Amino acid sequence: METGYVRVEIxxxxxxxxxxISEGFAETFWQDRKIGQHWGGVKLLDxxxxxxxxxxxxxxxxxxxxxxxxxxxxxxxxxxxxxxxFKAQPYHDLALDILRRYGIPHRVVxxxxxxPVVVSRPTRPTPWKPLVAGAIVLGxxxxxxxxxxxx
Length: 151
Prior knowledge:
24% helix; TATA-Binding Protein; 7-stranded antiparallel β-sheet; alpha+beta
């Protein structure tokens, strides 16, 4: 069965974007941009889950429209965010709730998968910032002490 999608008319782009921003979604430079993507925002839901919403322009027989692509994933603070072991999963209920609360006309086309009740997560996620900071400090110490000159 083909997965459905959430359709919003293209003239409502700013309304949709502003609704998600008002709900705490922030645009991020570091994201996998999809073809036709107008905007993408992320919001930390809890310590284990981050939601990513993309607004993508696409086309059908009637012309251009916006497709809302919401996903839940491991937060970007962890190496496992990029791991193939913990893939992002569709997560439509919160996005649909936001569209309803802000009175944004939308339509569900086809069948949306149910939001996952349990999302597979690493038992001990690996934060990447301390590791990168440590590598920089060690590199600086090595540079200033002349350690690399002897290699």
